[in-house]
Amino acid sequence: LITDFYPGYDSIDCPQQKCLVHLLRDLNDDLLKNPFDENLKWIVTEFSSILKNIVYTTDKYGLKNRYMKKHKKYTNKFFKSLKKLKAESEISEIYKKRLIAYEKELFLFLDYDNIPWNNNNVEHAIKHFANYRQTIKGSATESGLESYLILLSIYKTCDYKGLNFMDFLLSKVRDLDVFMEKCKNKKYRRKIRQ
Fold first, then answer.
1. Contacts of 86 (CB under 8 A, 6+ apart)
2. d(CA 179, CA 173)
3. CA dihedral 19, 25, 26, 31 (to 10 degrees)
4. What is the 8-class DSSP label of residue 3?
5. What is Dmax (Cα atoms) for the chain?
6. Using CA atoms, how far apart are residues 7 and 20, in angstroms rounded to an integer?
7. Angstrom distance (rounded) from CA 173 to CA 77
8. Residue 17: φ, ψ to 5°
9. What is the structure's pLDDT at 20?
10. Where would I find the H helices in the chain?
11. DSSP 8-state assignment for residue 191
């Protein structure tokens, strides 16, 4: 499960990857408000450096565990140093506690294949649902909503895989991987978004 830092998610019993984009946004916002806080500057610099190297690896090799696991020694070193940090301000103490509290959830994606470190895809997909909810103005049945969410899931999967959603539906193929094989002849394939 890839989540932001809403505390309600903590009660769900499953492996969770916290969205690092949300965390970076918070860190950068607070650093802009506290530009002379050396502890906070250290936290932001070190955390960003680790993430920058991870993104470089991801761009080169994808989200494959065999390439990502090399970053674990740097994340472990960061947390070891963070635990020793003598926070001299309230904001740096808050981030120290927050990062340590979520230590296992911040870099969980390094242990798995194809797990993103942010929930941008989900937030992008949920916009469709939010628009749908405004369109129907609360007049949905449970079965209608379930059908819409299934179609939305298929639509977004086609979109991310570079497949035409309508062509998939019209093909009457029930498996996206089988449909992708048929698309190798480029009959159904559309240009993938850059």
1. 39
2. 6
3. 140
4. E
5. 63
6. 16
7. 49
8. -105, 120
9. 92
10. 20-33, 38-61, 65-68, 72-84, 90-101, 103-106, 120-136, 142-161, 165-171, 176-182
11. P
Lookup: tokens for 14: 């499953």
Give the separation between CA 189 and CA 184, rounded to whole angstroms.
Answer: 8
Q: What are the tokens at 102?
A: 């979520």
Rounded CA separation 186/77 (Å): 48
Q: Rounded to 5 degrees, what are φ and ψ at 163? A: -105, 150
* pTM: predicted TM-score of the whole model, two decimal places: 0.66
> Tokens at residue 127, please?
């916009």
For residue range 101-137, what is the model confidence (pLDDT) as tens digits?
999 999 999 999 988 887 766 666 667 666 776 777 7
Residue ranges in the chain modelled with pLDDT below 50: 188-189, 191-194
Radius of gyration of the chain (CA): 21
Tokens of 163: 């497949």
CA distance 41 to 91: 11
**Residue 60 DSSP SS3:** helix
Contact 163, 181 (CB under 8 A): no
- What's the confidence (pLDDT) of residue 29? 95
How far from 42 is each of 30, 83, 179, CA to CA, in Å?
13, 13, 49
